[in-house]
Design brief:
The chain contains 11 helices and 13 strands. It is an alpha/beta fold. The strands form 4 sheets. Strands 1, 2, 5, 12 and 13 form a 5-stranded parallel sheet that branches. Strands 6-9-10-11 form a 4-stranded parallel sheet. A two-stranded antiparallel ribbon has the order 3-4. The two termini are 32 Å apart.
Length: 310
Amino acid sequence: MNKLIITSATTGSVHIPTMSEYLPITPEQIIEDTVKACEAGAAIAHIHVRDPKNGKPSPDPNLFRQVLSGIKKRCNIILLPTTGGGINMTIAEKLIPIKQLKPEMCSFDPAPFNLGIFQVAGRYEKFKYDWEKEYMNFWKTTTFAPTFELDLEFARTFMEIDTKPEFEIYEIGHVSYIKWLMDEGLVKLPPHVQFVMGGMVGWMLPSVKHLVQLHQEAVDVLGEGKFTWSVAGGGRWQIPLAAAAMAMGAPNIRVGLEDSLYAGKGKMAKSSADQVRMAVNIAKEMGLEPASPDEAREILGVKGIDKVGF
């Protein structure tokens, strides 16, 4: 198969507005960035939303509806909203946008992990908004720690509304969470797995060696050919890990302003489309063509844009 699915992660919840004037904040900016990424060759868009007044990551279901509906009106890209939610939200609150909007796909963090972005706060003397420094330092005392019972609730919800989860995997041991949920009959087969690697404190160091190890663990635990997979590399590792994944035969890679603010050394990306174009160029040198959204739907086995709730 010579098709490569490219995911564009538009804005995320890691980068703060102080870091880049190009980071999409308002619904209109998020919609525009995503449409440009689709036109550049992205087949999937991973969506977070932000408070349009100050750029703070937000769990507001009305903002999600506005953004997803706005994108759908302009292109047929697969929309994959986050289920990460906001600070101190309950699981019920995190699931509200997913239950209401019934997207084709969504992210799913089934295992505990730390988000060590507090290091970044020390790089800046001044911040654009008052919330930014406190937000970055908040992660010194907070861990993403879903319980097994909560994982079951998430998985049951996704099955009920026929939304395909993208399992976010940060460590080798996290693969076993997918196998457990498969054994419980709560995963539509084949599962879709994304290996997330970046420079966060406490994470596996981003490297081809560790990417190979993660992939091999998935093969050993889930079975050869029994899953589809992607890789999301953070910061300066975004494009190198994407290229490595292409060489390994990955059906899917991820770029976008959520993961990196640059489009080459020292060059700020003006949109996620800049990074999508870089990925497309590398793919073509490897004899790969970017999959269209409909081709990605067929490869991943998702329900179709006509069956969403927005």
